[in-house]
Design goal:
With 168 residues, this protein is α+β, with helices and mostly antiparallel strands. It has a domain of 79 residues: Orthogonal Bundle (Arc Repressor Mutant, subunit A), CATH 1.10.10. It contains 6 helices and 6 strands, in the order ββαββααααββα. The strands form 3 sheets. The chain has a two-stranded antiparallel sheet with strand order 1-2. A two-stranded antiparallel ribbon has the order 3-4. Helix 3 crosses helix 4 and helix 4 packs across helix 5.
């Protein structure tokens, strides 16, 4: 078990949890709260309103600390989720590439992306299968690939999902 860098609770990263890419944090809520230095008010964590990853509507994603189902929300509605999930294996590829969006100042090898996703995906998530999965996103210019260092990067300010749905 690990201790969250923001709220200091003990948490588990396992296949049942969606905190797989927020290393050091129990949830997206705590990951985002630490970025903006959000603190408890009267012993309670305030609600955060974040931008939807698909439609880019600001302050449309309701994220709370206490509700387990909303701590890691990325989409404002089921419609936005389904827009991303419409393509063949698009949501899985989004999950593979999500660390590139979260840590834009860092580049990742396919092996490192596989390590971020090892608890998450039932399908093969070896370095080779991840490299093969995201190759088309490199060809489309959404992800950049440095062939010398064999590292991937996400260089765009827009959320990854909003870039992906242009091709789905």
């Amino acid at each position: 078990m690990d201790r969250c860098d923001n709220c200091k609770v003990m948490y588990v990263t396992a296949s049942a949890y969606r905190n797989h890419c927020y290393q050091g944090y129990c949830s997206r809520y705590c990951f985002e709260a630490k970025k903006i230095n959000l603190k408890q008010v009267d012993g309670k964590w305030p609600v955060q309103w974040l931008t939807c990853d698909v439609c880019c509507t600001e302050e449309s994603v309701h994220v709370t600390y206490y509700q387990a189902t909303r701590k890691n929300a990325r989409f404002c509605s089921k419609v936005c989720y389904e827009r991303l999930n419409r393509g063949k294996r698009a949501y899985r590829q989004f999950q593979y590439m999500l660390p590139l969006q979260l840590y834009q100042n860092k580049s990742f090898t396919s092996k490192e992306l596989a390590q971020y996703n090892w608890t998450r995906m039932i399908a093969s998530c070896s370095a080779g299968s991840i490299a093969g999965s995201i190759r088309k996103w490199v060809a489309r210019g959404i992800i950049t690939y440095d062939s010398e260092s064999k590292q991937y990067n996400y260089p765009h300010p827009e959320p990854l999902a909003s870039m992906m749905i242009k091709y789905i």
